[in-house]
Design a protein that fits this description.
alpha+beta, 6-stranded antiparallel beta sheet, 2 helices
């Protein structure tokens, strides 16, 4: 019972994001993903009554496929993020960085809920699992 919902985050393109070629630097895309991830796991989750991700959730893996150069512009790009897998101690996210006409990047992350005090991974709570299930989509 997946929600098939993609979270949409509007991300500003900053002048400082540019490389010498006038394109957003490849490493900056990780920051865009982080902003979208912080929004879905932080702000939006808290609104939904789930505030435990911000207490500890770490990135275990990222993959990015660059599809088109992204240049500076005044209008934000959209970063869509959704869940592609749920396991006991990790979950997978997928992303698309795009606007109305262009897909700039596709990406994926493996995230691990983390016990900061114990310095070890922890299991997803039932509330976290229920929240993430709203965004669960088969890729």
């Amino acid at each position: 019972m997946s929600g098939m919902t993609r979270h949409q985050y509007r991300c500003s393109v900053r002048w400082s994001d540019m490389d010498v070629y006038g394109h957003v630097n490849n490493a900056v895309f990780l920051t865009y993903l982080e902003e979208a991830r912080s929004d879905i796991l932080g702000g939006q989750a808290a609104i939904a009554g789930v505030d435990t991700f911000t207490a500890g959730c770490v990135s275990a893996k990222h993959e990015i496929e660059y599809k088109a150069p992204l240049e500076w512009r005044e209008t934000p790009v959209t970063v869509e993020v959704w869940v592609t897998g749920l396991r006991a101690v990790s979950f997978s996210l997928a992303y698309e960085v795009k606007d109305e006409g262009t897909l700039y990047a596709r990406a994926a992350s493996t995230m691990v809920p983390y016990d900061l005090e114990g310095k070890r991974p922890r299991r997803l709570t039932e509330a976290e699992r229920a929240y993430l299930t709203e965004f669960l989509t088969q890729q």
